[in-house]
Amino acid sequence: MPTGKMDATEYGPAEQIAEDTTLLHLKQLFTALLHPSRIPVRYHAGLLLSAVMALNLLIFNGLSTKEDLAYLTQPRTGDLYQVRTQEGNYSLLKVVAAAGNSVQLQANAYQTPSSLEVANLNKPENYGREAFDLTRYDLQIMMQKEQIVDVERPESE
Questions:
Q1: In sequence order, what are the beta bridge partners of 50?
Q2: 50-83 tens-digit pLDDT
Q3: Of 90, 85, 87, 153, nearest to 121 (Cα)?
Q4: Which one of 14, 48, 142, 153 has the fewest CB atoms closer than 10 angstroms to its CB?
Q5: Is the pTM of this model over 0.85?
């Protein structure tokens, strides 16, 4: 006469007889393996941070472009236009006067190969004495052709 419950399992070519407690233990192991494993959040934190930064950059760039277009449609004396030359260098154009559809600009005499160094060119002695006229429409076309890279309006005005 048996003293406990007996189960039979087939493992490989041979048969084994095991007690109920052993099968219960094996069942718990298999169910634990069947549950989806979870990867700690810290492994994905860098990817998540990169995605947030990229999204922020896209949003900021979009807002900056809208702001630049608004500045081009309503130019003021003192506005600075960062321009890219045909050679790929960067320089500045400064608004001297804006009346009606016409905008008078002074070109900076110097150029730099890096867009990060353009701010160093903004000195009064670097601008030519002669001003030239462009229309607001010409400025918008330059912006669409990416000849005007950035528009800055001094905060003092």
A1: none
A2: 888 887 777 766 556 777 777 777 888 888 888 8
A3: 90
A4: 14
A5: no
DSSP state at residue 8: E
Alpha-carbon span 115 to 42, nearest angstrom = 36
Q: Which amino acid is at 14?
A: A
E strands, the chain, in order: 6-11, 14-19, 80-84, 90-99, 102-107, 132-135, 148-152
Query: CA dihedral in degrees (95, 99, 101, 103; nearest 10)?
Result: -20
In order of start, what are the domains of the chain with their CATH numbers? Answer: 47-152 (2.30.30)
Dihedrals phi, psi of 83, to nearest 5 degrees? -115, 150
- Cα 21 to its chain centre, rounded Å, is 58
Mean pLDDT score of the chain: 78
Task: For residues 144 and 121, give the distance between their C-alpha atoms in angstroms, rounded to a whole number.
Answer: 24
* CA dist list (Å): 37 to 40, 52, 77, 108: 10, 26, 63, 62
CA distances from 51 to 45, 55, 133 (A): 10, 6, 44
